[in-house]
Write a structure and sequence with these properties.
single chain; alpha/beta; TIM Barrel; two-stranded antiparallel ribbon; tRNA binding; metal-binding; cytoplasm; rRNA processing
Length: 364
């Protein structure tokens, strides 16, 4: 049985909504009113858009839905981090996180259900890729987070696209999402307050640079050479470091913007001063920043945490080589904060209930 699902209205950029309205015989200025209801007043029903005619509200109801996500659960850390598990219309589950910083509240969003990249340290890739999210499903994550922040009279000031999935493998939806939340009539989150992280999809780094936006770009590097990176990140076999660095240089030269390299520290794998020296040699000519990440323990994986002394020795080696580097502050270490862990726990619970249900049927 095929279910005819209406698209989310959150899928649409402001300009696309203007064009759609004109195609239906409506005035394009109505797009501004609709965006105000969606992203400023944050209504849940088209009927609440009271300065629109009933015929227009009915037209919107006939063609779109506002039901993007349903909250399954959320966990709150002692440091204020909030991790949500949301259900999509097809029953798949995704994660979204609110992180508290001294400069504001950051929302970390997911772009795919699962992931096919296969990084060996990540829980998100367990089970593979199920599907891409639509732009509206990504927008809905920020809206759901903002609605919780509304209760505290706070706002989401920053967004990081670092949740489950590889954003550049869902490139069109990613750009639609970014330009919706950035729009001055929308959530009005500044481009320089939004960071997108990629595992290194080289052709899309070129496309990203050519888009000439002001969004921040982060590249998950995690290794100073091909041998270690291919072991940690199989994608390196398709896009080895020489190609990745060439694309990163193109981005920096084309946009004039700094690039961030994310470098997870894994005990005994990539965390020695010699690795730091090799990393400095690899990226030393780039306008860049290195974000060192003490790895979260993931039960499904075998990597161990780098010691505190080794973390600071790695940092000092980079800084002595003239590399701008910092250690990422940890968030939500007490609530299964690593990407994919809450979703994995939910999936395991569902599998257990299914097995128990089958056993009960057999016993009867």
């Amino acid at each position: 049985m095929v279910i005819d699902l209406k698209p989310l209205i959150y899928d649409m950029r402001f300009e696309a909504l203007q064009q759609w309205l004109e195609s239906k015989g409506e005035k394009k200025f109505r797009a501004g009113q609709i965006f105000d209801w969606l992203y400023v007043k944050r209504v849940d029903q088209f009927e609440q858009m009271t300065n629109l005619s009933k015929s227009l509200r009915d037209l919107l109801q006939d063609h779109f839905t506002l039901a993007g996500l349903r909250e399954i659960t959320h966990q709150e850390s002692a440091d204020g981090t909030i991790k949500f598990l949301f259900s999509l219309h097809d029953g798949h589950a995704i994660e979204t996180v609110i992180m508290r910083h001294n400069y504001g509240n950051s929302v970390c969003v997911t772009t795919q259900v699962g992931c096919r990249i296969g990084c060996t340290f990540c829980a998100s890739t367990i089970g593979g890729l199920k599907r891409d999210l639509t732009a509206g499903e990504i927008v809905s994550q920020v809206l759901m987070a903002q609605k919780m922040l509304d209760q505290q009279e706070q706002r989401a000031s920053h967004v990081v696209v670092m949740g489950i999935g590889e954003p550049f493998e869902n490139f069109t939806a990613l750009l639609d999402f970014l330009y919706v939340i950035n729009h001055e009539r929308g959530l009005n989150i500044g481009q320089r307050h939004i960071t997108v992280s990629t595992s290194g999809i080289v052709p899309k780094i070129y496309a990203w640079a050519d888009d000439m936006n002001q969004f921040n770009l982060a590249v998950s590097l995690h290794a100073p050479n091909n041998e270690i990176r291919s072991r940690l990140m199989p994608i390196n076999r398709g896009f080895p470091l020489i190609e990745l660095m060439k694309a990163c240089r193109y981005y920096v030269d084309k946009t004039g913007r700094r690039i961030t390299f994310e470098y997870g520290l894994f005990g005994g794998v990539n965390d020695k001063p010699a690795h730091a020296e090799e990393l400095a040699e690899l990226i030393g000519d780039l306008n860049c920043h290195v974000n060192l990440i003490p790895v979260n323990y993931v039960p499904e994986r075998e990597y161990t945490r780098t010691s505190r002394d080794d973390i600071f020795a790695f940092l000092k080696t980079l800084q002595n080589k003239g590399i701008n580097a910092t250690i990422r502050r940890e968030h939500g270490s007490d609530i299964a904060a690593a990407c994919g862990q809450l979703r994995a726990q939910h999936a395991q619970k569902d599998q257990k209930l299914t097995k128990e249900g089958k056993k009960e049927k057999v016993s009867k």
